[in-house]
Design brief:
Layout: H1 2-6, H2 17-24, H3 27-54, H4 61-81, H5 85-104, H6 106-109, E1 121-122, E2 127-128, H7 130-149, H8 157-174, H9 178-194, H10 199-219, H11 221-231, H12 240-251, H13 275-306, H14 312-336, H15 354-370, H16 379-388
Antiparallel strand pairs: 1-2
Length: 389
Amino acid sequence: MTEMVYGAAPRQDGDPILPRWWRTIDKWSVSAILLLFGIGILLGLAASPPLAERNGLAPFYYVERQIVFGALAFAVMFVTTMMQPTLVRRLGVIGFLAAFVALVLLPVLGTDFGKGAVRWYSLGFASFQPSEFLKPVYVITMAWLIAASQEIGGPPGKSMSLGLTVVVVLFLAMQPDFGQAALVLFGWVVMYFVAGAPILLIVGVAGLAVAGGSFAYEHSAHFARRIDGFLNPDLDPTTQLGYATNAIREGGVFGVGVGEGVVKWSLPDAHTDFIIAVAAEEYGLILVLIIIALYALVVVRSFLRLIRERDTFTRLAGTGLVAMFGVQALINMGVAVRLLPAKGMTLPFVSYGGSSLVATGLALGMLLAFTRARPQGRINDILGHGRGR
């Protein structure tokens, strides 16, 4: 009866899971993600040897670790894409509770690795950054609360999501990690807006964000230093932003040549936060445009698929995940060209970083699970039948 009403394609019992997964997954997005990781390895071969030499390690130590983390990230992504949205929601809520506890305990058990911000747990053989894993499971939990609030007799999920968001943002700001705090707040605003939030509430949240930024500027030397450096018209060429800006300028359209770049010898974070500067210097504007196009492909295709989704939770969670993914890439590249103040944020699937890679693999696995073609999963099925009657 359900198939007669909604026009779902019949499926034979015992249909193998892998062929079904291959038919329903967004292959263009998967291809773009693989290409981004491949470009990250290519850039890592150029950017990481100077850092390895300074630390007395093998030349391709960081590249080898990146490949290992990448394999783990793709394994997580692959397994997650095969899950149903209901299972993703359940695991996401549990994961949010675990990640939030880890975030709360950071001031007691965490370390800053000499960078001035307590964001990591040291595991000896590696480090773990809770905020990276918090982002995707936070989106799942907030989408669940907001979607539940729209059900008849449902809980006040929108108010609960706002309260949890404020708490998460405050804990991130305490690290301090204002970049991740802003990204989390942005994700909530996008989901709330898609769910039909009144414009006055959005304006109010924006006003609170500005007020919070002003407070942080007055009371955090770390935040004030980055804002002052961004607003200063005279860019110090010996700072990270100065080196990155000069490298992008020197690269031009076609770059200075593979292995000929010099910014990797000056920037301590050339393989992480400023990897796009290495790409621009050695390969030029052409590679940068390719990277931007790959991110745009994932974002646009995901939005096009989600706009046809009729399940509220799936639509909200997918929108939040893809919005945070795209904006994080924009922030990273915007910092490198001095359109934004320094944030300490990686370029997804391109920058070096174990926590970032695996967490991004989890986020994109969830996104690809939400955008899979499913019987009765499109709102057009309902609209089409409505027009036909």
